[in-house]
């Protein structure tokens, strides 16, 4: 044992082979314990993930609390937590006030395949590489069924097998979340984290989709913890809940006795790299969000327009088509902010170009949109058409910016342009080069209102194994693709965001949407859930998918409205707009084989319902949404979150994923089934009051409400004790709504007071509402006071706000107030509001 400034180090020895590993345990100042294991004397360095953490976490100084022949106990700071390292069998326990919360290597499944030198590897070649990585996983986790078997076996890798794995026991936990991206819930079966292009993906599948975040969050009534497995190679995660639920539903049975040991066992196995495992200690959900954001970064604050509605299709045919769609939104009084162009806008699928016949004047088209305060987004995929006559291809080839095959040649696969090579975004120099491609001088036909969509960046290779790059492709620094596969889209997202930021000279926030992602992708922009299907089941699963992403830090996310594949029926389309209008990223998108589905093509009833969803439920709430993104950017709190994050002690919320909180003030329960006339809404909190935002009707918490619904109904409730800020009036885009007056809805709680201040939006005045007891001022009824103030973000800044409050609605008053007084700073005689404008909104 060696104590250092960064923690404590131990040498691990495997009894039979005498293989030596180096263990480092580091408590971090962000209430995280990091467990790092590498070879003690590797013949070749193993891949370590870089650029995901925002910096090396600052370590706490450890001290020895006690030591015996079997274990050593160490603590740090105020000694609220301890780490206990056992000698044999080896395990690491993390304790809180002497209670073991997490045990690392509890079942002895620590696994570490050593890298072999070439001479040893050659002699073992025919034996060592007989089994696939997938088969190794099966051998350690039996019984396992219905898994995807990898196609690469013998001879696939020049450096031989190098898989690593470990297990952890989470004591007292029965509910686990996270591990996106999957179209499923966590239910005790192994999950695969391996980014792939999956068209019209199946539901309830444990196979990998477009992105991966190896963060698992576990929750019980008194504590929330997280396990972050920092590894970018193919990874399997197996969850087992104990005691076992015979029905396999992962829900704690009511018949269990108080003495029954409840725990969640999680087993990680990755194809290469080192063991780099971080345990986030919480203990509250909000603290855990902050801890994870401190590690991997906070959500980038989106430009205001990006929170508006986006209209996309594969593909809008030409400039006339774009102008017609743009005019259609104005004609039907439906606000929107961004229109998107898919791959057909380019010259032969050459990105950073335009089809001269379809889009002869792209800059003029963008200026047309700019006059209406609207933007355009174009697609930019990571594959580059092999074309020696194309200057961009030659630049990338001659600059060494492409991924290579195992023989050292530029790798060539196939994608939309046909024969293509793939940009090696893992290289810092390549990312810098790629960023320059977005400059206005280099990207002809682009303007400052053109933003970017990264698609197919898992990466997708039509001719590759599992439709992606082969694992023995070689990246900058000699690393094999298997080492960093799940980082590929992350790095393109980073380079694109840097390019747009550089284009503006750092003065404008970029907007970039990416299909593939990894932990930390939240720093660069938005993601979406990929090629979904126009079905009720896909609509329903979009909510838990977004919640799972949000728990894992990817909070600017959403699903394609209406489903990308196939044609939605009118009722499904309406319900999808209503649901998507209550999620962070709001975009309609469809495949080129589907029928056109602009909102006005289904009759006036459908158009009116969509208009109401877009305008009233989304654009009017933009000040509130922008506030929530401000909090995400500064504290890590996701704008949408599962109910249990706001009601952590209420076990009936732990498995609820069809409704959710928007911030701490609004509860949403979208209708996701056809033909329903009534929905059941869980209103948590026995001491809470909830208000229907449409009728103002008051309901007590701690009940399941049966609510009648029509096609126009979107069940949303405001929590008592909150204040929600809305724009009032109408407009055509986010910039219009930003100029409108505000209305404030004050919802009183059981004590008949709002319990917390609210910041309506960055750049708008803040609000605080308080209650003064009548006894203090000898008033016959309680006195409520509302304070509005604004200030610059920096002490030396200036801020001149022209926004004004048009109205204040107070929910929960039993009687009309007798007097309302407006206090203005510097005014000695405050004016009174006319009582004729007041009404009780019980």
Rg from alpha-carbon coordinates: 28 Å
Largest sheet: 10 strands, antiparallel
Structural class: alpha+beta
Terminal CA distance: 66 Å
C-alpha geometry: globular
SS strand fraction: 15-25%
Keywords: Glycosidase, Hydrolase
GO biological process, one term: carbohydrate metabolic process
Family: Belongs to the glycosyl hydrolase 31 family.
GO molecular function: alpha-1,4-glucosidase activity; carbohydrate binding
Give an overview of the whole structure.
One of its GO terms (biological process) is carbohydrate metabolic process. Residues 300-628 form the Glycoside hydrolase family 31 TIM barrel domain. It comes from Nothobranchius furzeri (Turquoise killifish). The chain is built from 16 helices and 42 strands. By secondary structure, the chain is an alpha+beta fold. The strands form eight sheets. Strands 5, 6, 7, 8, 9, 10, 11, 13, 16 and 17 form a ten-stranded antiparallel β-sheet that branches. An eight-stranded antiparallel β-sheet has the order 1-2-3-4-18-15-14-12. Strand 7 and strand 8 (91-96) form a beta hairpin. Helix 7 packs across helix 9 (488-503) and helix 11 runs parallel beside helix 12 (604-618). The model is unreliable at 120-131, 141-156, 246-259, 761-783 and 834-842 (pLDDT under 50).
């Amino acid at each position: 044992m060696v104590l250092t400034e960064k923690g404590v180090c131990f040498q691990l020895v495997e009894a039979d082979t005498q293989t030596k590993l180096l263990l480092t345990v580091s408590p971090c100042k962000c209430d995280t314990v990091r467990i790092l294991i590498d070879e003690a004397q590797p013949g070749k360095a193993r891949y370590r993930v870089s650029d995901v953490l925002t910096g090396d976490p600052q370590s706490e100084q450890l001290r020895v609390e006690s030591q015996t022949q079997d274990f050593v106990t160490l603590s740090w700071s105020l000694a609220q937590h301890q780490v206990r390292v056992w000698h044999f069998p080896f395990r690491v326990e993390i304790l809180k006030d002497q209670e073991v919360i997490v045990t690392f290597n509890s079942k002895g499944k620590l696994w570490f395949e050593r890298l072999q030198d070439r001479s040893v590897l050659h002699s073992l070649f025919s034996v060592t590489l007989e089994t696939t990585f997938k088969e190794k996983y099966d051998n350690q986790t039996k019984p396992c069924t219905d898994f995807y078997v990898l196609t690469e076996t013998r001879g696939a890798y020049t450096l031989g097998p190098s898989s690593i794995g470990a297990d952890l026991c989470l004591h007292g936990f029965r509910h686990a979340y996270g591990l996106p991206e999957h179209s499923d819930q966590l239910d005790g079966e192994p999950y695969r984290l391996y980014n792939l292009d999956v068209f019209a993906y199946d539901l309830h599948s444990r196979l990998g989709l477009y992105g991966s975040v190896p963060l698992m969050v576990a929750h019980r009534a008194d504590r929330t913890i997280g396990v972050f497995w920092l590894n970018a190679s193919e990874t399997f995660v197996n969850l087992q809940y104990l005691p076992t639920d015979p029905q396999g539903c992962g829900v704690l049975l009511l018949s269990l006795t108080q003495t029954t040991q409840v725990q969640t066992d999680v087993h990680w196995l990755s194809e290469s790299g080192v063991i780099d495992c971080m345990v986030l200690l919480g203990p509250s959900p909000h603290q855990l969000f902050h801890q994870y954001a401190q590690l991997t970064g906070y959500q980038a604050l989106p430009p205001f327009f990006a929170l508006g509605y986006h209209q996309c299709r594969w593909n809008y045919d030409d400039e006339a088509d774009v102008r017609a769609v743009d005019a259609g939104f104005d004609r039907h009084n439906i606000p929107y902010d961004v229109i998107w162009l898919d791959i057909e806008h380019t010259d032969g699928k050459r990105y950073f170009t335009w089809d001269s016949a379809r889009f002869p004047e792209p800059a003029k088209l963008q200026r047309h949109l700019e006059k209406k305060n609207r933007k355009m987004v174009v697609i930019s995929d990571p594959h580059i058409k092999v074309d020696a006559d194309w200057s961009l291809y030659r630049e990338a080839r001659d600059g060494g910016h492409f991924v290579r095959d195992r023989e050292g040649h530029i790798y060539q696969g196939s994608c939309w342009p046909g024969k293509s090579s793939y940009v090696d975004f893992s290289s810092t120099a390549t990312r810098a080069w790629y960023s320059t491609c977005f400059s206005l001088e280099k990207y002809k036909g682009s303007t400052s209102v053109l933003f970017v969509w990264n698609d197919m960046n898992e990466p997708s290779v039509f001719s590759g194994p599992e439709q992606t790059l082969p694992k023995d492709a070689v990246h900058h620094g000699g690393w094999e693709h298997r080492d960093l596969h799940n980082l590929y889209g992350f790095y393109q997202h980073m380079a694109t965001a840097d390019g747009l930021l550089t284009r503006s000279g750092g003065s404008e926030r970029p907007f970039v949407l990416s299909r593939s992602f990894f932990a930390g992708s939240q720093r660069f922009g938005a993601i979406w859930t990929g090629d979904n299907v126009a079905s009720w089941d896909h609509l329903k699963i979009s909510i838990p998918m977004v919640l799972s992403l949000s728990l894992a830090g990817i909070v600017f996310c959403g699903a394609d409205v209406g489903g990308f594949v196939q044609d939605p029926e009118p009722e499904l389309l309406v319900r999808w707009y209503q649901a998507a209008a209550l999620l962070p990223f709001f975009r309609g998108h469809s495949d080129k084989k589907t029928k056109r589905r602009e909102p006005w093509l289904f009759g006036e009833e459908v158009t009116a319902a969509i208009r109401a969803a877009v305008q009233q439920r989304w654009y009017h709430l933009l000040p509130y949404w922008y506030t929530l993104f401000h909090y995400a950017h500064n504290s890590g709190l996701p704008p949408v979150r599962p109910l249990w994050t706001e009601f952590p002690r209420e076990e009936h919320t732990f498995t609820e994923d069809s409704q959710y909180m928007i911030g701490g003030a609004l509860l949403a329960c979208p209708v996701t089934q056809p033909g329903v006339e009534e929905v059941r809404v869980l209103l948590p909190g026995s001491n809470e009051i909830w208000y229907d935002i449409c009728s103002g009707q008051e309901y007590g918490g701690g009940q399941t409400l049966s609510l009648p619904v029509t096609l126009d109904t979107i069940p949303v409730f405001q929590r008592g004790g909150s204040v929600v800020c809305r724009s009032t009036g109408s407009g055509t885009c986010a910039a219009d709504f930003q100029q409108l007056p505000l209305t404030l809805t004050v919802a009183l709680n059981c004590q008949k007071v709002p319990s917390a201040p609210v910041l309506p939006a960055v750049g708008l005045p803040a609000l605080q509402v308080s209650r003064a007891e009548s006894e203090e001022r000898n008033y016959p009824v309680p006195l409520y006071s509302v304070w509005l103030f604004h200030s610059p973000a920096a002490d030396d800044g200036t801020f001149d706000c022209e926004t004004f409050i048009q109205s204040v609605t107070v929910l929960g008053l039993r009687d009309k107030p007798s007097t309302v007084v407006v206090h203005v700073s510097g005014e000695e005689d405050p004016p009174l509001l006319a009582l004729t404008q007041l009404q009780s909104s019980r």
